[in-house]
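Example record for the data management plan.
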Amino acid sequence: MVKLTGIYKDYEQGGLPVSVLKNITLDISEGEYVAVMGPSGSGKSTLMNLLGCLDTPTSGTYELDGQDISNLDDVALAKIRNEKIGFIFQGFNLMNEYDAIDNVALPLLYSGIKKAPRRELAERALTRVGLADRLNFRPNQLSGGQQQRVAIARAMVHNPKLLLADEPTGALDSNSGEALMDLFDALHEAGATIIMITHERSIARRARRIIYIRDGELSLVEKGGLAE
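Corresponding structural encoding:
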């Protein structure tokens, strides 16, 4: 599903190039559940941006679902994001003026799907995450855990090849966080490919593989707790 080969990412600082990612080589198979850990400034967010087609590498190749996307332009990358990738953010990123079903339907609107079928697909996604009774609730009428479930439904409504989660439990209390990770387990068991950034080791161990990054380089890869 994901194949990174010799990935470098440089940014300019004070007129000089600064390497943020250095020779990253990584394979992630379809259906894997992977956690990425590392200290602040380690490069994990840059890595996630590359995986999500929000940025491109300075050098190296990135193949997603068998397609080399390393040098695609912004329009082509946007198309891939909309068709193949679902994003789950710590801050939910829901639109307060829309109810749950319309928030979830947004990616389908951008894909040109008509109103009736996109609302049907959005309702199905919300039902899958346990919110069939909250379709017409706005974000400010939902708990933090429920808002994150809406965000997950939105990420998966178009049946993406890859789910990317950036600190998905960071804004939740411990009980809501555990419930959310149970949902991730269910999505994985249903065949979803999940890559998750987290700073919490207990959360990372819910994944089947943990990747550590430090100073822009992969420093360690180990099995997650549920793989043991």
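Summary line stored alongside the record: The chain has a mean pLDDT of 90.
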